[in-house]
Write a structure and sequence with these properties.
13 helices, alpha/beta, about 15% strand, binds pyridoxal-5'-phosphate, about 35% helix, seven-stranded mixed sheet, about 425 residues, globular, aminotransferase
Length: about 425
């Protein structure tokens, strides 16, 4: 155990997730690569945790942050803040939510907490619908609506949460259904739940489950849910913390794969927008956002230096059509990985869209999850110079591939080759 690891173990919580038998200390990055303290170079196929959206050390972001830091880092939202207003204007426009208001937080957890605060106040109900296998953050209330109970089985939530089918499909009774039968079964389940409870405030869902192993429900699931929700006056909150900003390739927001009729009532975001700077937030139409009458702030939400990073990062993303790049390069990558998986009886499926690709590992010839092999593949990939992720909670048999959206074709091929050999060496 190296000295830093020993010190980490002494002073930080045991439950703080740490990858690898001999954890890495990353000291710097550039483009799609990072380097460790020993000078080893890695191709980064996890982009922080989907936080490095454009590229490591993107010059425009570095310049914007250092220039802003040289002027002022934070003056609080008690005063007018130009970069915050500008980023809010851009996100409000991109959200397609009519008369949208944006509230900035410092994390995805706090964004979801705020969405719960808004929805419960607006609908006067503390019952929330959430998806099985979901992950929404680590605060008391976010853990309380997280369906991936493996992640925090001891939590006692202040909310009443009802879990809806639609999140997990790889195993269990729903696995054999085709897309329309699956949607129908999930809608029936939702109706059945609503018939036995007082009206919930909202349904919160990730368009593609992130920590749950990049599992996508069939397109159209949430549009079908929405018809039912509308009939009961229940709000729909899309948690776009992992899926926003073009990551899924075909769409700018993950919800767009599901619902052509218009945006959700509330969208939460975080991760990639700051390219590693801590920006989270909530977008909702003013009628919902303004249902809180308290005079409130989030001390570090909207701080100038993070907003400057967000503006520079978003401009780069849009000007270079990184969503289109995610679609094209992600399409090639998934094909390569599917071809490799066809030779491997322990790969149950390679799924995903854009640069959000999940590889589900099961013990050969069975439906049984194989988290040990996932851990072994992670180690083997690292030894080959590639960093990838895996699912959390009870989804640790899924590998997660989510490079920065500027990934080149050559890098996709290089990473796929390393991953193929990591899969071969662990069969
Ligand atoms: N929502 C989703 C979908 C997430 O994946 C995460 C984190 O992984 C969160 C919320 C919580 O975000 P944060 O870790 O920034 O608090």
């Amino acid at each position: 155990m190296n000295d830093l690891y020993a010190r980490h173990r002494r002073v930080l919580p045991d439950w703080l997730a740490l990858y690898y038998d001999q954890p890495l200390e990353i000291t710097h990055g550039e483009g799609r690569h990072v380097w460790d303290a020993q000078g080893n170079k890695y191709l980064d196929f996890f982009g922080g945790i989907l936080t490095t959206m454009t590229a490591h050390a993107l010059p425009e972001v570095t310049k914007a942050v250092s220039e802003q830091a040289g002027r002022i880092i934070h003056s609080s939202t008690l005063y007018l803040n130009r970069p915050m207003v500008e980023l809010a204007e851009r996100i409000a426009h991109l959200s397609a939510i009519p008369d949208a208001r944006v509230f900035f937080t410092t994390s995805g957890t706090e964004a979801n907490d705020t969405a719960l605060l808004l929805a419960t106040a607006h609908r006067r109900s503390n019952t929330i619908l959430a998806m099985r296998n979901s992950y929404h953050g680590r605060s008391f209330s976010a853990v309380g609506i997280t369906g991936n109970r493996g992640w925090s089985p001891t939590s006692l939530s202040p909310l009443q949460t009802l879990y809806v089918h639609g999140g997990v499909r790889t195993r269990g009774p729903y696995a054999s259904l085709d897309d329309s039968a699956f949607i129908e079964a999930c809608v029936e389940d939702l109706k059945d739940l609503l018939g036995h409870t007082r009206p919930p405030a909202a349904l919160i869902a990730e368009p593609v489950q992130g920590v749950g192993g990049f599992t996508s429900p069939p397109d159209g699931l949430y549009a079908a849910f929405r018809e039912v929700l509308n009939a009961y006056g229940i709000l729909w909150i899309a948690d776009e913390v992992q899926t926003g900003w073009g990551r899924t390739g075909d769409h700018f927001w993950g919800w767009q794969a599901h619902d052509r009729n218009g945006p959700p009532d509330i969208v939460t975001f975080a991760k990639g927008i700051g390219n590693g700077m801590s920006i989270g937030g909530v977008v909702a139409r003013s009628e919902i956002m303004n249902c809180l009458d308290a005079n409130s702030i989030s001390t570090f939400g909207g701080t100038q230096v993070t907003m400057a990073a967000g503006l520079a990062n978003l401009s780069h993303l849009l000007e270079h059509d990184l969503q289109g790049n995610a679609r094209r390069v992600g399409g090639l990558l998934i094909e390569r990985l599917r071809a490799a998986a066809a030779q491997d009886s322990g790969v149950r499926e390679v799924r995903g869209r854009g640069l959000m690709i999940g590889i589900e590992l099961t013990r050969p010839g069975t439906d049984e999850a194989d988290p040990d092999r996932a851990a072994a593949v992670l180690e083997a990939a690292r030894a080959g110079g590639l960093l990838i992720g895996k699912g959390g909670g009870h989804s640790t048999s899924a590998l997660r591939v989510a490079p920065p959206l500027s990934l080149t074709v050559a890098e996709a091929e290089e990473g796929a080759a390393i991953l193929e050999s990591a899969l071969r060496s662990t069969q």
